[in-house]
Design goal:
The protein is mainly beta. The chain is built from 3 helices and 14 strands.
Length: about 240
């Protein structure tokens, strides 16, 4: 699996307490089959729910669901008990509801009331600054007595050419990068992948590493260099 060194994931959490926003986020319809996770004292259980009532008419609106699950049949789960329900949508958004058990059947069927507000958690893909090195001003890299040339570099990691195989997961204790006009950056990194350097005939391998430790001064130096070079290449 290819590891993208120049993007990061940002988790965003928010709260929805407006009926219109509920309708916009949840496209549930009557008798809609919904895969849910219900969290109780005994743990979290995956189950399928059927939406049996919708009421968006007020701020404290409700979504009533009917669930066949082991938790509903638990004698310790009494009517009125509050539980946490999680729902992952097809768009990759996580919804969390505080729910109350309205009534339960003897066959493991429970009817729950999902009330507002609900918490929404989504994951955004953030593109990070990345400088693709040119042959006019090569960036030298030294690691474990092996020297190579940086192909591209960002604040999260870099890719460099090498004639040595670095196994995925290897921790590089002393990675040194010579930034032209900005000086040396030293730190630790972990190998994310190694592949044949088919586009670089003078080298055998292309290695991607993610920084795990950089001194604050080196991080600032790298930040200045990358952002400066990105601006120059855009002109």
């Amino acid at each position: 699996m290819f590891f993208n060194l120049f993007r990061r994931k940002k988790v965003v959490r928010g709260m929805i307490s407006d009926a219109a926003a509920i309708r916009e986020h949840l496209d549930w319809t009557q008798d809609h089959r919904i895969p849910l996770r219900i969290a109780g004292e005994e743990g979290t259980e995956l189950c399928t729910a059927f939406l049996c009532a919708i009421n968006h008419s007020q701020r404290e609106g409700l979504l009533r669901i009917r669930v066949m699950n082991r938790l509903a049949a638990d004698p310790g789960l009494t009517e009125g008990r509050e539980l946490l329900v999680r729902y992952n949508s097809a768009r990759g958004i996580l919804y969390e509801f505080q729910t109350r058990l309205l009534k339960k059947g003897e066959t493991g069927e429970g009817e729950y009331r999902l009330s507002y507000p609900l918490i929404v958690e989504s994951c955004q893909d953030i593109k990070m600054a990345r400088y693709k090195n040119s042959a006019d001003e090569p960036i030298q890299v030294d690691v474990d007595k092996e020297r190579g040339v940086v192909i591209d570099i960002g604040l999260k990691g870099l890719r460099f050419t090498s004639n040595k195989v670095f196994k995925t997961g290897t921790l590089l204790q002393n990675l040194q990068v010579e930034l032209p006009r900005y000086g040396r950056v030293e730190g630790k990194a972990v190998v994310k992948y190694t592949q044949p350097a088919s586009d670089y005939p003078l080298w055998r391998y292309l290695c991607g590493v993610e920084f795990t430790e950089l001194k604050p001064k080196d991080h600032r130096r790298l930040n200045r260099y990358v952002n400066r070079m990105v601006q120059v290449t855009r002109v």
